[in-house]
Amino acid sequence: MLVLFTGIAGDFWRNLLGWYGYGAIVLVVVALAIVVLVHNRDRFAARRLPYPLLAFLIFATLSIAWSYYRLPSVLGASVQWATTAAAIAVAVTLSWAELLVALGWVFRLVLGLSFVFEFIVSAFIRHPVYPVWVVPDDPAHPAKLLYWSRNLLFDAGKIQGIVGNSSLLAMAALLALIVFSIQLLSRSVGRFWGWFWFAVAVVTIVLTRSATIFVGLAVVVIVAIAVLVVRRAATPRGRSAAFGGIAIVVVVLAVGGFVFRAPLLGVLGKSADFTGRIGIWQAVIGLAQQRPAVGWGWISYWMPWVAPFDHLIKRGGVQVMHAHDAWLDVWLQLGIVGLVIFGLLVLGTLLRSWFTAIDPVKTHPALAGTYSWVTMLPILMLSAQLVQSIAESRMLIEGGWILLVIWAVKTRLTQSGQVPAAIPVAATPGSA
């Protein structure tokens, strides 16, 4: 649970303890992950891990050789390996049902502590607060993007929670909504507390008002409906018809979204330039085109003191730390080659997650198998992450990368029989 909490709410540790305190916690997490992997080395083999995942890590490491910023690339590659090790430790030691429980506790902590924190700021401190490591250059005109909390809870404003960012808190709430919904449907939690935390996640999404998350919520609902439609198809012909219907709906929604993008952006409260993101994307594309094949070298987070990031983009007086698009970030750092590898990793994980969701769980080859709500976890979570990847680069770092690796590794190992398949939770034959 510490691995998942630290990954998803890493900003909390940094804001509370500073970078050195956060570094100490990360070292503890990595050490524990290594111990877990060594202790459970008989439960998986490296050759059973997804090849695109290994290829991505190796290529990111090799990029040190041609990196424009070699020492930061050494650090970036090391952090990527360490984060991956922590994620693999979770994937190989927890069943799907146990992972659902762990994620439930983590998201309850993130959302619960966020409201407690915002309440303390608004009720007692009564003014915006900075992280402990931030000292504003101009206290009279502070950069609002640096605030840990803006003291907006009582004004029903866009709260930022313990992660210090309304967009990140909104994403945590969307993922929490998926987890809490599956727990309620599988009856793995009591109805009162299940619905209570479901409501907390909904309120958080409303208060953060992130356009990306509203789109993500719509996509998650569509994917969930698609899974249920396929599950209900009893024959191969029925499944083919379901797949065809789903394809038509997806095309219609995609075309409609493109044609009516301007009014949709207005409804979501977004400007035509996606709140400044297009300017960031243009700057990133211009830089990536200078080294299109293999990129500038892996760095993960943009280090604001390292060229060419030191004067690349500023928003609200704050240096931008990522491309606000995971795909552009990979192209920038690892070029077209890295982008292809990353695409294969995501595509493979998406396909395995889809089949994990639509196929019944068999506890014995001779049995017909049953459907379980918990097997919908990876496809729904990954769908939300993919939507976020268009506007944020979080899928490449910390909790976003941890979750991606968990879905990639766990679906691969389950498929190859290296770990037990998902344990049905309150499932009956033919249940959704």
Rg computed from alpha carbons, rounded to a whole number of angstroms: 22 Å
- Give the spatial strand order of the biggest sheet: 1-2
Low-confidence stretches: 419-432
Largest sheet descriptor: 2 strands, antiparallel
Give me the secondary-structure category: mainly alpha
Fraction in beta strands: under 5%
**Count of helical segments?**
14
Helical fraction equals 55-70%
N/C terminus separation: 28 Å
Any idea what the shape is?
A: globular
Number of strands: 2
Secondary-structure element series: HHHHHHHHHHHEEHHH
Q: What's the mean pLDDT score?
A: 88
Please describe the topology of this protein.
Blueprint: H1 2-8, H2 10-39, H3 51-62, H4 70-93, H5 96-125, H6 166-186, H7 191-208, H8 211-232, H9 236-259, H10 261-267, H11 277-288, E1 314-315, E2 318-319, H12 326-358, H13 377-391, H14 398-416
Structural write-up:
With 432 residues, the protein is mostly helical. The chain has a domain at 40-93 and 286-432. Helices cover 63% and strands 1% of the residues. It is built from 14 helices and two strands; from the N terminus they run αααααααααααββααα. The chain has helices at 2-8, 10-39, 51-62, 70-93, 96-125, 166-186, 191-208, 211-232, 236-259, 261-267, 277-288, 326-358, 377-391, 398-416; strands spanning 314-315, 318-319. It has a two-stranded antiparallel ribbon. Strand 1 and strand 2 form a beta hairpin. It is globular and about 65 Å long. It starts with a helix and ends in a 16-residue tail after the last helix. The model is unreliable at 419-432 (pLDDT under 50).
